[in-house]
Specification:
alpha+beta, transferase, GNAT_dom, GNAT family N-acetyltransferase, 6 helices, 7-stranded mixed sheet, binds coenzyme A, Aminopeptidase
Length: 177
């Protein structure tokens, strides 16, 4: 039987869970993220506590956590950048290998996108490394498309990443479905 998957916004006291998931993601999929495992391991526990406390209440950035049978099994971050356009992003998406292909990633993206839309976003952006073909196909399957914007990967300047976008359906589009 498939495990049941749920997603909840991070709580202020979940710094240790956040640290556990962040280090697990960087250990398992270092190719997918800008930061390195060393960055996460060298950061002190208080910085994760502070991030969790901020992300639990902020209107500008947050984290959602995926649970399988109540155990943390993935995460995603969502934020508005500080440009004039105040673009809305999802990032740092990771699902534990044991529960992949069960729609946990989709649940995380949809939860983060719903939060961003509720805070006023009409488009949701995601940077994806060109070499990360699985993530590219994943985001495409969820309705993200190319913006034509590219940049170098900071951690690996010989590699490129592309900016994808998904439009938030308007209320009338939702009722037409
Ligand atoms: C990308 C990732 C989050 C997908 O999570 P997941 O829970 O397995 O994805 P879902 O089950 O929600 O998949 C939804 C759809 O995306 C597509 N998809 C997911 N994984 C895919 C893969 N490896 N290859 C091709 N398509 C894929 C499929 O269309 C899938 O629908 P289907 O199962 O009906 O075919 C997960 O593989 C992961 O954590 N990878 C490592 C970290 C990473 O690359 N993060 C993204 C950084 S940009």
């Amino acid at each position: 039987m498939s495990p049941s998957l749920t997603v909840r916004r991070i709580a202020a006291d979940q710094g240790a869970v956040f640290r556990e998931l962040r280090t697990a993601s960087l250990r398992e999929a270092p190719y997918a993220f800008g930061a390195t495992l060393e960055d996460a391991l060298s950061a002190d526990a208080a910085s994760f506590d502070a991030t969790a406390a901020d992300h639990a209440v902020s209107f500008t950035f947050t984290t959602f956590i995926l649970y399988t049978e109540g155990h943390p099994a993935g995460l995603i971050e969502a934020y508005f950048d500080d440009s004039a356009a105040r673009r809305a992003f999802v990032c740092e998406l990771w699902v534990a290998p044991a529960v992949r292909h069960l729609r946990g990633g989709e649940l995380l993206v949809d939860s983060a996108a719903a939060w961003l839309a509720n805070e006023g976003a009409t488009e949701i952006y995601a940077w994806v490394a060109d070499a990360n073909r699985n993530a590219m196909r994943f985001y495409e399957a969820l309705g993200f498309g190319p913006t034509g914007e590219h940049r170098r990967v900071t951690r690996a300047p010989d590699q490129a990443e592309s900016l994808l976008v998904r439009h938030v359906p308007t209320t009338s589009q939702v009722f037409q479905q």
